[in-house]
Task: inverse folding
């Protein structure tokens, strides 16, 4: 039995969880907080990052590597096109979402969501980078109606979990949603994916975990 380790708060955890649910793969979940340490954790996730996946062969870290394993081990239903080039284009979109949008916007999270303060000039620097990267992402994304075209793919596992965070963070920091300003309708896209049973399960579990965090001292 696969065991997905991490937290339902994490968009990267939920990226993997959404893929597993879409494929109908049986798996257990184990809560592992961020910022952990200790040899047992580092043996499974050498940077102590979440998520990581326990398999019969050992543990895997990094969400993209995990999705590659899931696709190879459980090919049906596919979350990548059969054509090698089209499959690479899906992966390209997922990388743009994770690396060039969400991870850049993540620099805003301390102030946007947690009451921190960015150093002087940082907000402007991040905005400039995001605007450039959003324009690049828009050249690749199709939203027809899914982010890579007419079929739900791994790119949607990334986009549905991360694009709303980019929208919320930029709105909080700059008074406008930079994705919407670029003509990307995240609300409509999120609603579409949110109608899928797999996404509803992910959203419900995330809501439960958020309530637990709020209740903790």
Result:
């Amino acid at each position: 039995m696969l065991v997905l380790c991490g937290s339902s708060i994490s968009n990267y955890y939920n990226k993997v969880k959404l893929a597993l649910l879409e494929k109908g793969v049986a798996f257990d979940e184990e809560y592992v907080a961020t910022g952990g340490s200790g040899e047992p954790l580092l043996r499974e996730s050498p940077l102590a990052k979440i998520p990581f996946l326990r398999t019969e062969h050992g543990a895997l870290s990094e969400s993209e590597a995990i999705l590659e394993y899931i696709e190879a081990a459980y090919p049906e239903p596919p979350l990548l096109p059969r054509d090698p080039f089209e499959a690479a284009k899906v992966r390209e979109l997922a990388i743009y979402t994770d690396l060039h949008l969400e991870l850049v916007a993540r620099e805003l999270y301390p102030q946007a969501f947690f009451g921190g303060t960015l150093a002087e000039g940082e907000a402007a620097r991040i905005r400039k980078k995001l605007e450039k990267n959003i324009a690049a992402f828009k050249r690749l994304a199709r939203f027809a109606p899914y982010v890579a075209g007419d079929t739900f793919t791994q790119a949607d596992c990334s986009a549905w979990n991360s694009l709303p965070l980019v929208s919320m963070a930029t709105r909080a920091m700059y008074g406008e949603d930079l994705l919407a300003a670029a003509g990307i309708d995240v609300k409509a896209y999120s609603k579409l994916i949110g109608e899928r049973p797999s996404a509803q399960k992910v959203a419900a579990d995330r809501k439960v975990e958020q309530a637990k965090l709020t209740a903790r001292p």
Remarks:
- The domain at 2-73 is CATH 3.40.30.10 (Glutaredoxin).
- The beta strands are 2-6, 27-31, 52-55, 58-61.
